[in-house]
Amino acid sequence: MGDILVIGNGFDLHHGMKTNYIDLIDFMKNIQDDINYVDKKIRDVFVPYFNNDFLLYCINDLKYTSNKTWIDLEIEIKIIIVKLLDFLQSESERKFSSIQDYKNYKYSHNINDSTQRVLLKDIKSIFNDNGEEYEINKIFITAWNTIDTDEVMKNMEEQLSDLESILRLYLKYAEKKYRDEDKYKIDEQINSISPDYVINFNYTDTISEIYNIDKGKICYVHGSIDKENIVLGYDDKNSTQEDIVFKKYYRRIIKGTDKIEWKNMHVDDGYGGYHEKNIHFYGHIANHAGIKRIAECYITDSGKLSTRLWRNK
After folding, report:
1. For residue 31, what are the domain limits?
2. What's phi and psi for 264, nearest 5 deg?
């Protein structure tokens, strides 16, 4: 009876890797502050992304601490997008007393506007800092003096794509320099599982490199470094057209990440039924959406669920 192993970021952390959310943000902050922090060739790879809106928000405003996780980043991405959409909606509903007022209106706000201050201050690709006010970049103003909402959201989608590139480049070129190599080795307890199928919520190849598991048996749910299709975004069942491009399930589709093969979740008994498989979760937060989804489908198909939660990260 083959087992299934489902791994999250705690799996990589257990093997000494610097794959925490804070590791990425600290690295990006350090290479911006100190040109000698890393080799020039590596730093030059990241320079084009220094002004990424999401990155600057994390560095400048998010009070990141050692207990922050990738879920916290996803929440912040959602907050930014929702606030921006609210702002665009409020501007589209603005009333003018005359045609002249409409033509002369400047899309700017006082810095003391508490409801929008964080948004206006951090989304630098859209808003210009004019001292006391934050004004929308003129490239997003149409010939009719209205905000081009489609172009604004297209810009933010590009910002998110660039953030995905930052993470991929960090994992590919930088992370190895800071990991604890003494921990990057076989853990006998994990090795004893000998899974037939691995559902990998990470972007790395730790499981195949250390435990010599065939990549054909690994499902990279959120993409992988090698395929350059890693996914960031947020989970939200309330689907709207305005923010769909920032949601994980949509980004998984457009980037062509692996799909969980449910045929690998069971063993056909040859009589029209199934043998149950043990499913091991390692390195996940217990309420992770991926765990819930896997458990729901597994229970639905077989009526049984045998699980073991190994490491809660």
Report:
1. 21-173
2. -85, -5
